[in-house]
Structures are given as structure tokens and as C-alpha cells.
Amino acid sequence: MSQLIHPSALIEAGAQLHPSVAVGPYSIIGANVKIGEGSTVGSHCVIEGHTTIGQNNTIHNYAALGAAPQDKKYAGEPTQLVIGDGNTIREFCTFNAGTVSGGGITRIGSDNLFMAYVHLAHDCQIGSHTIFANNSQLAGHVVVGDWVILGGFTVVRQFLRLGAHSFTAMCSLLFADLPPFVTCEGQPADARTVNAEGLRRRGFSAERIAAVKAMHKALYRENLTLDAAKQRIQDIAVQTPEAQPDVAMMLDFLAGVGKPGIVRRRRDPTECPV
Fold this sequence. Notes:
Elements: E1 10-11, E2 16-17, E3 22-23, E4 28-29, E5 34-35, E6 40-41, E7 46-47, E8 50-53, E9 58-59, E10 64-67, E11 80-83, E12 88-89, E13 94-96, E14 105-108, E15 113-114, E16 119-120, E17 125-126, E18 131-132, E19 137-138, E20 143-144, E21 149-150, E22 155-156, E23 161-162, E24 167-168, E25 173-174, E26 182-185, E27 190-194, H1 196-201, H2 206-220, H3 226-239, H4 244-255
Helix pairs in contact: 2-3, 3-4
């Protein structure tokens, strides 16, 4: 056994660990697990099922990854959990494998930070460069885009989508899709503004940020129907060619809105008109 694997760790026959992988005391690695180069597993972790973990991931103590989905229809099928590269998974996180009806794979991208006690249910699809603060909880089949930030204790209902660059405040409770770039807070969550500071940090120009704000205005400030807002947003690409990729992403997201709709904005009666 590699010197990087603690003698008390249990590595089941069949597990595929790169020689550079480190495993801490009392952790259990199942027979169908694959872990890539440079990844580390803390103490008392359980990684089971058909789980594939990429390179340079850091998995802290007591994480539980790849367990059977919490779905009564699950009948032991070899569904998967697939994790990309460079993720940090803090203490007591629980990520479940997928279900046959949901495509069979719970998938996580790269360079994400999952703080302590985050739960990802079966069939969730997580992008890259996201931050999930402590105790964020996703029900099954939730799709989270790149660069999303979830505040602590955020809870997301099943089958919802959170668009790229969106942001939830602490204790947000989502019952509808959250469009790209939009921030929200509350129980249930209300749309607030755009994550302009986050966009600046990611290199968005002033022109692109202005276009994102114009899309937000069309969705939430002009009392338009969703179809009318889509048309207004489409016009923004003509006015600001630099923002065409952002407009395309927003329109693609809105085209997929289903029965739950999008997170809405309820005006505070004390608020000044904008």
C-alpha cells in the first residue's frame, strides 16, 4: 500500500487510485471508485458506488460521496457520481449518485468550493467555478450554471435551474428558476438585482454589465410579460454587440422555463420607483 494511504484506511479491491492520491485515517474507498492524480481524501470519508473523481480535488474529513440516491424508485442500478478537477469539498458534504430516470449521473464540474454540510441530491448537474456556502441543499435534478454562488442555508426545490453568475443570499428558499446574473433572497426567494460586483471581478466590461442590467430591467422593472421581456432582451444584443453571448445565454435559459416560472420580484411598498 502506498505511503500516502493511512494504514487504517480501507481501499476495496477494484478501486482505482492514482499513485499520488493520499487517503487519511479510517476512510473507506469502494470497489468501483476512481480517483485521479493529485487528489487527497481526509479522514473518516466514505466514497462508494460508481464514483469517478478527477485530478487535484481536496476532500475533507467525513465527506460522504457516491451513496445510493434517496429515491424510493432506486433499485440498485449502477448509476454514477462524476466529479471534475480542482474541487474543494469540505467536512460532512453528501453527494448522491444519479437515478436511471434522471439520466444516471450526478455531475460536478471543476474548480468549485463546497463548504461544510452541502448536500447534492441525485441527478444534480453542477457547473464550474461555483461556491456553495455552508449547509446549501439541493433537491434532485437541479441544474446549477458556472460561477453561481449560493449563500449559506440556501435550499433549492427539485427540477429547478440556477443560471450562470446568479447569486443567492443566506437562507434563500427557491421554488422557481433563477435566471443568469440575478441575485435573490428571501423565503420564498425574491429577485433583487444583478451580481455586478461578481461580474467585474470576472472581467466583464462596463458595457457588458450595462447590458446585463438592461436585461434585468426588462425582466423585473418594466411590468412586461415573459414573452415581451424576451423580445426586449433580444434587442439588447443589437444595441450592444459585445454582450451578444450574454444575451444568447439569457434567452436560451428563458426558453427552458417551465411551469414553476422564474423567481419574481415583489416590490417593497416603501421602495422608491426606479
